[in-house]
Structures are given as structure tokens and as C-alpha cells.
Amino acid sequence: MIVWLNGAFSAGKTSAARELTGLIPGSTLYEPEVTGGSLRYLLPQKRLGEVGDFQDLTIWRRLVVDTAAALLAELGGTLVVPMTLLRQDYRDEIFGRLAARRIPVRHVLLSPDETILRQRIAAREEFGSGRERSASVRRWALDHIAPYTAALSWLAADAHVIDTSRLTPRQTAEQIAEAVRSGAAAACEIVQTPEPTGETLAAGVLLFDEQDRVLLVDPTYKPGWEFPGGVVEPGESPARAGMREVAEELGIELERVPGLLVVDWEPPIPPAFGGLRLLFDGGRLGGGRADRLLLPGSELRDCRFVSEGEAAELLPAVRFKRLRWALRARERSTVLNLEEGVPVG
Questions:
Q1: Is the pTM of the predicted complex or chain greater than 0.85?
Q2: Structural domains of the chain sorted by starting position, each given as residue range(s) with its CATH number in brackets
Q3: What would the pLDDT profile of 244-293 be if each residue is shown by its tens digit?
Q4: Is there a contact between 72 and 101 (Cβ–Cβ < 8 Å)?
């Protein structure tokens, strides 16, 4: 199990985490900032210069999950992780990958009053790093108050909230330990199937509105927009797998088995294994069904109907190429065979 302590910078996450390891038997402290700091020695400066925060690096988010899983496999017990996550898609990606490894996460938000938070930041000193460094850290922390405030709507809805305005680190840790023990800090609902160990067969379904715009979904468990659909289970028909996924993700029961538009071979690019990707034509959602889509919070963060041009802005390049040829196949009432998003044969 992981107890993830979220909150603004200077909310008291690290000091509370250290106290918490003494209250939860068999617990270990893991600070992902250490992983972020190590990237300065692993990545070229050019790559580091392309981002403003190490959280924007895909490798950091992957390493956080891999390190946490490795620590739990080695030590067992509970991992206490103090780390600010203000972007919901990053939270979803990290927690989703942990869920795929069957690691439950208890998400706790430390939320002091903003006035007290600013006072703490103003008084903050970075031990042994000099006055100039301390001033820089304070400015950086103050600059992140606005993003934290903007994220409070989803943070407060997702996490167990503890007001630390008048609590010592020990008192904060005691409240966290009690919330974990009592179940008040419940396991995060994000779910994900285990990561593949070989090539997979996946089925996506294209759904259209009255304006012929195509539906895209934003999964909670991985970055980037996608088509409704998922991995085909053993012994399952690909078309019916797509129908099942549409029903589970969106609450839409398709009236007919969708027709095939494209078959695309996705090559293995480590750490991904690749495999066959099929796109089916689910038809138009008429009769107002497009306005009655179900969004289960554990799987989808958002969905929207988009034009082909808008899809190019949302989808990763490989998925957009697949979509583009699927739309052409739909126009021509044919089926196209693709390799890496390019027609062959």
C-alpha cells in the first residue's frame, strides 16, 4: 500500500511523512524528488532544458512508479510518499500505473489556510544552501500557490483532506494514520488492467455525432486522448470487445456489431510491446444519445466530439494517422490494412 501525501509546497508533507513512518508499522519513506534530482545526471542538458519541471518528463513519472513498486517488492509494508501533484492527468497516470501493479494508493491532501501557507513559505530557509538559494525557493513556492488553488476542485474531491493550519507535524501524522486505519482515507478508485507482457490485440470504436464529428476520450489511467475501446480479452471477438468497452466506458449499448475500418500493426518500441490495433465504425449516435454519455470517474476524465483537424491537436501522431485512414475507409466503404499508420498492399 502507498500513502500519498499531496498538497502545496510548504504544506508540511515531508515533515508529516517522517512522523508517519513511526506511526505505521513496517512503513518506509520514499521521496520522488530524489528521483527527479537524479535525472540531472542521467539526461542530456538539452532534454532537461525542454521542460520547466521534472514532473513534465515522462521518464520521471515512469521511474516514480517503478521505484515505488521495487521498494514495496523489496521491503513490503507501506510506502509513505510526500509529493505534490497538481496536474490531474499526471496523478491519473501515476496512480493508474500503480493500480495496474495491484498497488492501492491512499491519497491524502494536506491543506493549510492560504494565509498560513504564505507565512510558512516566507519563513522557509534552505539549510546550508545560502540566502540567495532560499529566496529563490521561496519565490518558486509562492508562484505555485495559484496552480495549487486552481487544482483544489479535483484534489478535494479525490483525496482525504486534512487542514494542517494549526497542526504540528506529529499531530498531522496522527490524523493521517487514523484516517488510513479507519478507512476514511480510502483507496483511490482509479483502476487499470495489468501492463501487457507481450503483443496485444486492441479494438477501438469510432462513434459520430449528427455533425459527423468523431468521439475521443481522455482516460484517467494513461496520458493522451484515445478512441473508446480497449484490449481484446482471450477468446473474445474483437468487434464485440469494442462493443463491451463502449458500454463500460460510456454507457452506450450499440445496436449492431460495428464494421471494421482499419487493421494497423503497431511495432514493439520498448517498453511497449506493440501488436494489432483495429478500428471499427460504431455509427452515429442519434436521438440525443451523444448528449447522454456516461463518464465513470475511475476510467475517463473527459470525452468530446471533434473534427478531424481538432483530433490532430489531441491525439498522439500514431493514433491520428490511424484515425485519418479510418475516416477515409469509412468514406469509401472499404477496409484498409496499415503498418505503423501507413496503408500497405
A1: no
A2: 2-182 (3.40.50.300), 200-343 (3.90.79.10)
A3: 999 888 888 898 999 999 999 999 887 778 899 999 999 998 766 666 66
A4: no
